[in-house]
Amino acid sequence: MSHKPVRVRFAPSPTGGLHLGGVRTALYNYLFAKKHNGTFVLRIEDTDQTRYVQGAEQYIIDCLEWCGIAPDEGPHRPGKFGPYRQSERKDMYRKFAEQLVRDGHAYYAFDTPEELEKMRTAFKTENNPSPQYSQATRMKMCNSLTLSKEEVEKKLSDNVPHVIRIKMPDQQEIRLNDMIRGEVVFHSHVVDDKVLLKADGMPTYHLAVVVDDHAMEITHAFRGEEWLPSAPVHVLLWQYLGWSDDMPQWAHFPLILKPDGQGKLSKRDGDRLGFPVFAMDWTDPQSGERTNGFKEMGFLPDAFINLLALLGWNDGSGQEIFSKEELVQHFSVERIHKAGAKFDFEKAKWYNHEWIKICSTDMLLPMVEDLLSSHQIHASHKMLQTTIPLTKERCHLINDFLPQLKYFFVDPVELDTAAVKPKWDEKKEAFFQSFVNEMKSLSSWNIEAIEQCFKELAQAQGLKPGDVQLPFRVMLVGGKFGPAVFEIAQLIGKDATLKRIDRGLQLFNQ
RNA sequence: GGCCCGUUGGUCAAUCGGUUAAGACGCCUCCCUUUCACGGAGGAAUGAGGGGUUCGAUUCCCCUACGGGCUACCA
User: Mean pLDDT, chain A, as a whole number?
Assistant: First the structure.
């Protein structure tokens, strides 16, 4: 074990959006770094210019900040989050790729896309539907292994488009120690000669990730399981570049799967199943396509990272609600599961509900205030401070506060008359008429006085208080929900109460 | 097809050879509440199949089945 300070990186590609799997990868990296007093840095995978999406890099940073897991500055790239960008380090990669060629671990390949296609169809058999550029085929291709030295130099000086490919060794077992899976063994003869440097001079992920991880002094390289098959290439690269001693420890996280069916959770699934798959709303600047985010749907950042962390990891204690600090404290890579987990939106909402319940009114207030004002409801802080605790246990999402709180500030537009009308009669109507009169002369306006007045009057008229309580509630809030009616009446005030009863009577009598 | 990784209820999952196989979500019943929730008490529901190893396998090994990932000059 080395004693270097822990440094991990999150390396998203800025191709638009940041879905659940990505955020969880970032989160696990963050938790590991913080647990070991290390640093968590950002590296941007912008190798492929054609797919780079404007604004996506900032969007990623915004998401991480919202989640409370913003990257650290890092010593190698000052600035707010100082991400490494592959696009800015082009020369560096070429230098290392050429070094590999000189050392005999890589070679130039001049095959055109058409020639590659030809090779794939020529070698395609029933048993081998996708032939690769590998030990089996490379000697039949146009590269610096098959061409003479002069021919190669001529092509290079003529600027013939070419790539640099890794030369996989003959018969070699490539061993990789994964912190989650243990030792994984690959045989070199089944791994193909991956392109390291593309014809446009940009590196592929394989070269870039190794060069950058080395430059950034990354100690632990954690990523999704989809990278496991190419890990042997990376291990070899660390060796061939002469950096074996600095090779990070590896871990490959399980995938987050679709709730139904199977396969990786994708952007499409959100639309299909009605839940967000991105941390925050994302609008693709090119297509204009919009994908919904957890934030805008009313998730609390603490709940969001809590539910993500527990999707594939737990500390074995049965505890499910963790603050960020607790997650840092309890987290361990070794306890991350090997198998992928299906995403369950119902459980996700449960986490948020739990967080809303334990969240203080002060924390909730600004969010609720924003929600209400975006619906043209302007509520005083004083009123919010008393009504939020009254209603928060009914809210799974922050957005649920709108229906739960609205009636405290504005008269209900629609009343659930269907809940009242079947049992509505003249006797009840008479009760409310006299209740209005009684209330007008009520000297003090508090819960006890209203309740007492209501109940005594009901009894005097031979009605069970319960029979008139539901109509009263529907008049005040519009439906069959909310906290105690008399408390609501008290909070909205005498005038509003009288006004709503009046309107209720009209509607119930129609 | 090949390579790699997986497989405990519908879902998330505990168990690191011996348990009546936890707990949570969801679902159902009841209590509390003359609303909706919260809370409380219960219930139905799980070790893919087959071989080993062992006094004893959910747990270790092998095979099969199934699922997933990768198999691009994408990440």
Answer: 93
Please give the structure tokens belonging to residue A172: 């070699």
Q: What is the rounded CA–CA span in Å between residue A421 and residue A348?
A: 38
- ipTM for the predicted complex comes to 0.96
Tokens (6 digits) for A488? 């609501």
Length of chain A: 510
The listed range with the strongest mean pLDDT (A76-80, A100-104, A289-293) is: A100-104
Statement: the CB of A403 is under 7 Å from strand B: no
pTM greater than 0.90 (yes/no): yes
Query: Rounded to an integer, what distance in angstroms lies between the CA atom of residue A389 and that of residue A309?
Result: 28
Distance CA(A458)–CA(A324), nearest Å, equals: 52
pLDDT digits (tens, 9 = 90+) for A85-123: 887 888 889 999 999 999 999 999 999 999 999 999 999
Q: How many helices (H) and strands (E) does chain A have?
A: 20, 14
For the beta sheet containing A7-10, the strands, ordered from the edge strand earlier in sequence to the opposite edge, are A84-85, A39-44, A7-10, A220-224, A249-253, A173-178, A182-187
| Predicted local distance difference test score (pLDDT) of residue A239 | 97
State how far the Cα of A91 lies from the Cα of A273, in Å rounded to an integer.
Answer: 45
Q: Is the CB of A346 under 7 A from strand B?
A: yes
List, in order, residues 6 or more apart from A65 with CB less than 8 Å away. Answer: none
Alpha-carbon distance of A418 to A439, in angstroms, equals 26
> What is the mean predicted confidence (pLDDT) over A487-504?
97
Cβ within 8 Å of residue A204, ≥6 positions away: A47, A194, A195, A196, A197, A198
Mean pLDDT within A140-160: 96
How far is A498 from A361, CA to CA, in rounded Å? Answer: 30
The span from the CA of A17 to the CA of A270, in Å, is 13
Q: Determine whether A427 is an active site residue.
A: no
Neighbours of A406 (CB within 10 A): 18
- The spacing between the Cα labelled CA in A310 and the C1' in B24, in angstroms, equals 11
- Among residues A35, A267, A421, A499, the one annotated as catalytic is A267
Distance between CA A495 and CA A362 in Å, rounded?
29
Q: Round and report the angstrom distance from CA (A230) to C1' (B4).
A: 10
CA–CA distance, A360 with A468 (Å, rounded to integer): 35
Whether the predicted pLDDT of A400 surpasses 70: yes
Spacing of A338 CA from B69 C1' in Å: 13
Examine the pLDDT at A15 and tell me if it is beyond 90: no
